[in-house]
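Just curious: can you write a single protein's sequence together with how it folds?
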Amino acid sequence: MRIDTLPANNRQTQGIERRAWLRAHSPAHLEQCAALLQLALAARPPETSRSIVVLGAGACTEVPLAHLARAADEVTLVDLDLPAMQRAREELAATALQKRVQMLERDLSGGISARLDRLLREQAWETLAAQGSDAVFSAAAHCLDQCVVPDPPLIDGLAQDNYGLAISALLMTQLFSYPLLDLLDLVQRAAPRWLGDQERHYGYQEAAQAFRARVIQAHLRLLRDLLDRGGLAVLLTDMRGFAFTVHGTDHDAAHRRAMPLVPRAFFDLVRATFAIREERHWEWISDLPANDRLGRGYEVAGYVLE
């Protein structure tokens, strides 16, 4: 499962060197993330908890951990990548700040990848592949429909109603994209002839969108349930990816190809779960084009929620 390779992949995309790269190539991304967090800290009522939790913390590449630690009695970092969180804490120069930072190594999806993997392994893929594309992706859609999404996931070590600020740090789309990519990896191994046909299979597309919406809803409810009375949530999430061919043309529609990441239901789900205090949108570049490799970037939404 792709979730198992997360720590190894993160070493290439997170941490001090990555932050320096972003300052050089996508500084507005770091500035917008920091600005929303500062806004939330300033708006946090004095009577609410001074504990902060960061979901999907990783190495805190976009999250100014030192600033959070100074504003909190305790900061809890939660991620599957324990070494990345350890690197983030070690970046703090002051021992007193390091002592305020706690770490929890947890799967914040509540085990979705493992559940879907079990359902997929129960299918007779060789027989389905022989029956054709419709049989393959009808079975895949059935697995998505049957996959239990804990709503909200119960994360051992995280207490409900405990945090004055709960942050989701560019995590949400990973919670559903990793298991969906696992599914397509299986199709590529078991029925490679039909890979790509999922884009034209209505039943699969409907099931995948419903799966994304269920995962988003569960994550939003987790954020909500972690908050103390009067607490605020900050949601940072990729909304749409894009690929581009020539450096400097990433904003030119003629040179970029967009890839939606979240379903249209996302906005309604946010409004149904929270009141929106602040909403901002921006773009960031994650990779520059080089040789035959396309450049990549993301459209991002950032919210302060209550």
About this structure: The first strand starts at residue 51 and ends at 55. The longest helix spans residues 202-226. Residues 2-305 form a domain with the Rossmann fold fold (CATH 3.40.50.150). The chain is about 45% helix and 25% strand.
